Amino acid sequence: HKPKVYVTRRIPESALRLLTSRYLVTQWDSDEPVPGAELMKNVPGIDALFCLLTDQITFEVLKAAGSSLKVLATMSVGYDHIDLEACKTLGIPIGYTPDVLTDATAELTVTLLLATSRRIVEGVTAAREGTWSTWKPMWMCGRTLLNSTVGIVGLGRIGFGVAKRLLPFGPTAILYSGHTPKDSAAEVGAIFVTFDELLQQSDFVIATCPMNSETVGLFNKAAFMKMKKTAIFINTSRGGVVNQDDLYEALKSGEIAGAGLDVTVPEPLPTDNKLFTLSNCVIVPHIGSATIDTRTNMAEITARNIIAVLEGETMPCPLKF
Ligand code: GLV
Ligand code: GLV
């Protein structure tokens, strides 16, 4: 029989074609996430599941799929939406999409950093709304990367890509923290420090770590208190690494100078969220990997991860867990 694949969203055509040309594909044909109940209804008897980071892949979902399920492939580098223990228990391999989104996500991180430090959103708003009265020596002044200390929490592929891109802006030092020192750090002159040292010394604190039991809520009141009052915090990891109430208080009280967020809890962040009332908080809608090329590549790799397993070959991008 032809293997059955369930795809939880509308995806780039070329990736869908890779699957439809080989398998029986059922798809949640929408740009909105598949409802949990609909997912549960569609997974029984499938051979492969193509999912996104907006799908909660719980033990129940995997159980509902049953013993026919041979591979779970997520169109994301993050995998905090997947119950890894359940996959391990049930012996289901996972495919994901590292590498292809590193450049786009590092680029967006730098974009968000500059937009926040140079107050781009405030400036655009002022220009449009007519509060731009004249050139003023002390108006709309931001902060520069030149001679700054940059701190990167999680010098993985993306963190390294950010460091590489920030070097030409002339920081004095690039610090990083994480589990263990990385060999690649020398290439960008990044110095391994403790999390506390990084918070205390950095002018820019950038979160590019994965979210897991060690990083959830890592950026809390205690962390913001340790940062400089002039510090700018950037998060392109997961919203869950931040305690958002604590971030709000830190931004409101001047405990830190600004924040740029690509990720929040929840997503979308309701428009009446208090973070939106702050002019020193720049929020964009989880667009780190959002370039046409990158999203096409991510979808195709996800399809190829599925094809590899169903054809008895090695996945191009297996998650080691
Ligand atoms: C985006 O956040 C991803 O995990 O791919
Ligand atoms: C995420 O993919 C990272 O490597 O930081």
UniProtKB/TrEMBL annotation:
Keyword Oxidoreductase: yes
Molecular function as annotated in GO: glyoxylate reductase (NADPH) activity; hydroxypyruvate reductase (NADH) activity; NAD binding
Gene3D superfamilies membership: NAD(P)-binding Rossmann-like Domain
Highest taxon of source: Eukaryota
Cellular component annotations (GO), alphabetically ordered: cytosol
Cross-referenced InterPro entries: D-isomer_2-hydroxyacid_DH, D-isomer_2_OHA_DH_cat_dom, D-isomer_DH_CS, D-isomer_DH_NAD-bd, NAD(P)-bd_dom_sf
Entry keywords, A to Z: Oxidoreductase
Location of the D-isomer specific 2-hydroxyacid dehydrogenase NAD-binding domain: 111-288
Cross-referenced Pfam families: 2-Hacid_dh (PF00389), 2-Hacid_dh_C (PF02826)
Domain D-isomer specific 2-hydroxyacid dehydrogenase catalytic: 5-316
Family according to the record: Belongs to the D-isomer specific 2-hydroxyacid dehydrogenase family.
Name of the protein in its database record: Glyoxylate reductase/hydroxypyruvate reductase
Source species: Paralvinella palmiformis
Organism placement in taxonomy: Eukaryota, Metazoa, Spiralia, Lophotrochozoa, Annelida
